[in-house]
Amino acid sequence: MKPLTNKHILLGVSGSISAYKAPDIIRRLQDLGAQVRVVLTAGGSKFITELSLQAISKNKVFDNLWDKEAELSMGHIELGKWADLILIAPASANVIANIASGKACDLLTSIILASDAKLMLAPAMNQQMYKSSALQDNLTCLNERQAVIIKPDSGSQACGDIGLGRLPESNLIANQVAKQFKSTQLTGKNILITLGATIEPIDPVRFISNHSSGKMGMALVDCCIEMGAKVTCVYANISVPLNQKARNIQALSGAQMHQAVFDEIDQQTIFIAVAAVSDYALKNPAKQKIKKSADNLILALTRNQDILADVCKLNNKPLCIGFSAETQNALENAKNKLKNKACDAIILNDVANAEIGFNSDENEVIFISKNQQQNIAKNSKIKIAEKILKIFIKEFL
Ligand SMILES: Cc1cc2nc3c(=O)[nH]c(=O)nc-3n(C[C@H](O)[C@H](O)[C@H](O)COP(=O)(O)O)c2cc1C
């Protein structure tokens, strides 16, 4: 497994004479498994062409905050969310000053303000510029804000001076980027997670659904991505924002979700079924809105296919975790589910308690597998997700 597999690196190329080395930095990052997108500053574009960077990165190069098309979907915010790490190499004195003073004067600086991704800078400039107290103060300020500063090399410079300020070798920069990511047992693994409440249409305006918000599933999506997994998120009706680092596929009904899961399942190492899928769907949803008439209306329902059970029946089944939302005989029902569906682990969720489970920000669950039963005490859903994964990894990976 390459150290940057599945990692999204946003490379900022700014106006230094050493910007000509940017294509090589992209190649070295790609060699380590990274996906690279490039933001070119106005200064950077004087030293290297957009075309070279596009050809090497195999992606459109972003160079304009005022790009009407990109900003339709708030391009600068999206790029900030896409990035796992923002590397500026080379970082010009001007860009460093702008970032240190919190400016959002161009695309690159706007993305940096709008992103929570780790920031790394490789300053490259004339030795006197590098020594200047203004530049050094700006670097100290960025360092205090947890940015990683890659120390420049010393030697002869393009201008004829000798001293500190040269951009280090591309492979050294790429290796320093790789060091920022801790490898975990989920690094590079394909994980499919379903979440949310399915919607079964009764007629064009009404449906059968449930109270699931997608919060627990999204906490697992976030955690798996944080641990380096490549996550496919198949979601029904949810009240939480999607994680842009996942591959997101909407599947509203139980049948659509079954199809979406089976379209993807071959590639997966782990399947986590958190979605609250309706057990039944309308046999014949009405094509037109059902009008009020008789006092009683009987809707004929038909069983939906059981996604988790069907995945567990596959010859090359992935490791499977199911969720069991119960209101009574919780433990017994969950253990039966583990056995009947033949999955590897079941997470029991007592949804009768309004303080936990559906729609709440907290949860309290029991991890059940053939070999163990562990209570996970009440906590935020993100902490619960971390604990579920920790126990699962210890037993199965
Ligand atoms: C020939 C030439 C070489 C330059 N080299 C550097 C350099 O290596 N590092 C640097 O910080 N600025 C350098 N500059 C100055 C920057 O290009 C200038 O500050 C520019 O505004 C930076 O643009 P940016 O912030 O859009 O990247 C150079 C300027 C010229 C004309």
Largest sheet: 8 strands, mixed
Second-tier CATH architecture of the largest domain: 3-Layer(aba) Sandwich
CATH class of the largest domain: Alpha Beta
For the CA atoms, what is the radius of gyration? 26 Å
The small molecules bound here are:
flavin mononucleotide
Structural class, by secondary structure, is alpha/beta
Beta percentage is: 15-25%
Q: Estimate percent helicity.
A: 25-40%
In angstroms, what separates the terminal alpha carbons?
15 Å
Total DSSP E strands: 19
Q: And the CATH topology of the largest domain?
A: Rossmann fold
Work out the oligomeric state of the chains in this entry.
single chain
Number of helices: 14
Mean pLDDT: 93
Instruction: Note poorly predicted spans.
Output: none
Q: Given the C-alpha coordinates, what overall shape results?
A: elongated
CATH homologous superfamily designation of the largest domain: CoaB-like
List the topology elements.
Blueprint (H helix, E strand, L loop, with lengths): L7 E6 L8 H10 L3 E6 L9 H8 L10 H5 L2 H8 L2 E7 L1 H8 L6 H7 L4 E6 L3 H5 L1 H12 L3 E2 L3 E4 L5 E5 L3 H10 L10 E6 L4 E2 L5 E2 L6 H12 L3 E6 L11 E4 L3 H11 L5 E4 L6 E3 L18 E3 L3 H6 L6 E8 L3 H12 L3 E6 L11 E8 L3 E8 H16 L1
Parallel strand pairs: 1-2, 1-3, 3-4, 4-5, 8-11, 8-13, 11-12, 13-16, 16-17
Antiparallel strand pairs: 6-7, 9-10, 14-15, 17-18, 18-19
This protein binds flavin mononucleotide.
The site of flavin mononucleotide (FMN) has 15 residues, from helix 5.
